Amino acid sequence: MPLLGPLQTVAAGLIGSLAIAVLPIDVGSSSTPARPQVVPVAMKYEAVSDPETIRISSPVAMTALADRPVHVVKQGDSLWTIARRRLGDPLQWMKIWKLNAGHPQADGQAFTNPDLIRPGWRLRLPLLRRGSGDFPREKRATPSPVESPQPKPMPSSGALSAEGARVGIELPSGSLVAMSVAAGVAAAYALSRFQRRRRRVSPSIEETAPSMPEDPPSPVVETMRKAYFQSFRERGEEPPSDAELIRESASAMEVPRSVMLGSGERGATVEVALEGLSLGVTGPGADDAVRAFVLDLLQQAGNFRTELIMSRQDALVLTGIGAEELGDVPGLTVTASGDEAVDRLEEVRFTRRRLLAERESDTVDALRERDPGDVLPTVVLVASATVDVGSRVGAALASGSGCGIGALMLGDWPHGTTCHVGDDHRVGSAQGPLAPRLARAELFHVMRTDLAAALRLLAGAQGEESQPVEEDAAPPSWDHPTPVRVRVLGKPAVWVKGQEHPLRIRGLKLWLLVYLALHPQGATKETICEALWPGKPLGHEFHSLLRHLRHALEQSTGPCGEPFIQLGDDESYRADPKVIGFDLWDFQAAVKQARTAGDRASRIACLTRAAGLCGGEIGVGISEDWVLDERYPLIVAQVDALTQLAELVEGDDAERALDLLDQARRLDPDTEDTWCRVIRLQVRLGRADQARQTGRLLRAHLQSLQVEPMPETQELLASLAHSSVRTG
Question: What angle do CA 468, 473, 479 make, to 5 degrees?
Answer without folding.
Answer: 130
